[in-house]
Fold this sequence. Notes:
Structural class: alpha/beta
Radius of gyration: 18 Å
Number of strands: 12
Strand order of the largest sheet: 6-7-8-3-9-10
Distance between the termini: 36 Å
Largest sheet: 6 strands, mixed
Order of helices and strands: EEEHEEHEHHHHEHEHEEHHEE
Amino acid sequence: MIEVKDISRSYGEKLILDQVSVNIPKGKVTSLIGSNGAGKSTLLSIVSRLLKQNGGSVLLDSRDIEEWKTRILARHLSILKQANHIELKLTVRELVSFGRFPYSQGRLTAEDEGKVEEAIAYLNLQDIAGQYMDELSGGQKQRAFLAMVVAQDTDYILLDEPLNNLDMKHAVQIMKTLRKLCDEKGKTIVMVIHDINFASQYSDFIVALKDSRVAFFDETDKVIVPEVLQRVFDMDFKIVETDGKKICNYY
């Protein structure tokens, strides 16, 4: 479990997170939703230890995240940031191999190679595994970076807007892959996502942030209701249910 306790964070005089507390369950998909500036990405960065909070603490499996050695933490928790840039001339397979660094320190074993190939297959990248990253479309690059995270094979996977640059087909493929990682491999997935319908279709739990605080945290079915979404986004929603899933109409 990830336990977020009274986390606060400011940029100058601007308060981004105000004593945020939430317990993210293990082995589930949890989505962070809310308007721009609500603090979603900031919270994810603090949980991953990429950003230091001004107050409060984060516990990973009941242990303060500050106590973890970096290499050991990287075997338990991985993150895909919102913006990813590389300067090196790398193939997709070479990039995905970086996910094994916490284990191999650059010297890949047969087990590492197997994890790399498994991740490439998970993201359907076999046909472009030998191509260079600078030759790929934005969507292909995003899938390659996600494959690198999958190859890291951590219990916890944090994703900041993983559907960036993806068309509808590949966005659905990514969400199905994340659901599969959770259901078949027991991964705990926490992601910032803007498409409320993807959150509705694929999440077990939703954390809704507003005005620097957690406005709602519950099972998805209890958050995807008109009155809750209206309070979070300040706009009207109509919910349609089909095949047991809720679709949000807000156009």
